[in-house]
Design a protein that fits this description.
There is one protein chain. The chain has a single domain, classed as Cytochrome c oxidase, subunit III, four-helix bundle (Four Helix Bundle (Hemerythrin (Met), subunit A)), CATH 1.20.120. 80% of the residues lie in helices and 0% in strands. The chain contains 6 helices and no strands. It is elongated. It is found in: Cell membrane.
């Protein structure tokens, strides 16, 4: 029931992101058409010129790879292996905790990278209130950043439960799997968001 409830919630959340995408494409279409008619640079063209693509790509790769480490943790949870069975350097012997801690760290790095990007953009006059394009950018990426932060909190709760109990139960395994659903969803949404905002021309 927890898994089904999570899927229903994620589906409703997807509708909100779909609305953000629709608003973004509509705004870009209007500003591009108006700029072409006036023979000037559109807000969208002005905005994308501020992006640091190498930094954004690196930050995105970190988030994508965190989905891989998360799935590794899920496979360990399904086998009932909560902790490592060997040295910390023996990655093959890691359990759910080690993989989820690594996923948490990578997710935190992504959020930190996004905050750094926001600070850089703000120093260049690219702020929430600059124009309609910047408002759409910060609304879409900021809402996603809140979801990533929510995922990090979910990882903390999941890891906390494994340390508070002596045995790894089926309920905890389900909790770990459901947490991975959410994390994979957040990653998939970012791939689409990144492609639309940073790459699509």
């Amino acid at each position: 029931m927890v898994a089904i409830g999570t899927w229903i919630w994620l589906a409703s959340d997807l509708m909100f992101f779909a609305a953000l995408f629709a608003a973004y494409f509509n705004l870009r279409s209007i500003t591009n058409a108006a700029a072409a008619q006036a023979g000037t640079e559109s807000m969208w063209q002005w905005g994308v010129a501020h992006f640091n693509m190498p930094f954004a790509v690196t930050n995105t790769l970190i988030l994508i790879l965190s989905s891989v480490t998360c799935q590794m943790g899920v496979w360990k949870a399904e086998r009932g292996q909560v902790g490592r069975t060997g040295s910390l350097l023996q990655v093959g012997q890691w359990g759910l905790r080690e993989w989820y801690i690594l996923t948490f760290i990578m997710g935190a790095i992504f959020v930190g990278g996004q905050a750094t990007e926001y600070a850089t953009l703000a120093s260049e006059g690219f702020t929430l209130s600059t124009n309609a394009y910047t408002s759409a950018f910060f609304l879409a990426t900021g809402f996603h950043g809140l979801h990533v932060t929510g995922g990090l909190i979910a990882f903390l709760f999941m890891l906390g439960r494994t340390y508070m109990t002596r045995t790894f139960t089926h309920e905890q395994a389900v909790h770990a799997v459901v947490t991975s659903y959410y994390w994979h969803f957040v990653d998939a949404v970012w791939i689409i968001l990144f492609s639309v905002i940073y790459i699509l021309r």
